[in-house]
Amino acid sequence: MTDLTPTTSTHPGEPGAPPARAGGPEGPGNRVANPEPELEASTGGSSSGSAPAPAPAPSDPIQPAPSAPPLPPPLPSAPVEEPAPSPAPDQGLEGDPTAWPPDEAFEAVELDDRGWTRRDLEAILLVADEPVPAQVLAEIIGLRLSEVEELLVDLAGEYARDGRGLVLRAIAGGWRLYTHPGARAAVEAYLKAGQQSRLTRAALETLAVIAYRQPVTRFQVAAVRGVNVDGVFRTLASRGLIHEVGTDPGPGQATLYGTTPAFLEQLGLNDLDQLPPIKDYLPEGVELLDLQEQP
Predict the structure, then answer these.
(1) Looking at 19-23, 196-200, 231-235, which range is the least confident one?
(2) Number of structural domains, the chain?
(3) Which of 265, 260, 268 has the alpha carbon at shortest distance from 244?
């Protein structure tokens, strides 16, 4: 009678095949699907043929937390601009310790020959009390007349283009600095405000010299006082206390000045003969004749 019992396949991996022994030789048909690491017995292996218990998978060692990346170096800060130092007490202009900038600030400026000439022309015109002919300026500066006239035209054009408070004009045969016509209201307000204040000692001394020696030029008054009187003359003229009375017939034909009726009104006098005798106020040893003979 024929046995109809199905035979069991001896090839692992086929349906019905017995599982392959762990630890057996690994062949093409005896490969474990999910192999686990095995530990051999201390005697060198298992003699009974049974597979040793699989060892637990070693746990991962604790890894230290990654340290934070180093911070980038700080960006260089912008240089801090230090304020300009205040002028030292022994510095200043014309002996004034409070004047600023000091002389060193002007001496540090480098100019070419043309720049030096322009600067000198401006300085002369600033202190001039009447138009200065270009020929006189050329003789003072030491340049040809054509060169000086060219510089004067350039200066006048520069003032006009920049809209400065001063304008340079050719008038009455010479050149002179004037205030800008657009600043007339501001200048008048300043002069009117100044009329309410008292005269300084320098102004009173200058006015006294003019009153007792009139008609007199600025140079003669400056010779008596020993200082520049241009600014004081402008103040007295703006107050209406002095005015031009003519020109000196000598060389240069300097302008002559005298007191005004407003001067007599301020002092309560009818005429100059009522002025107190000056000899009563002269220092001891000084004679009036000596003062009258001064230039």
Answers:
(1) 19-23
(2) 2
(3) 260
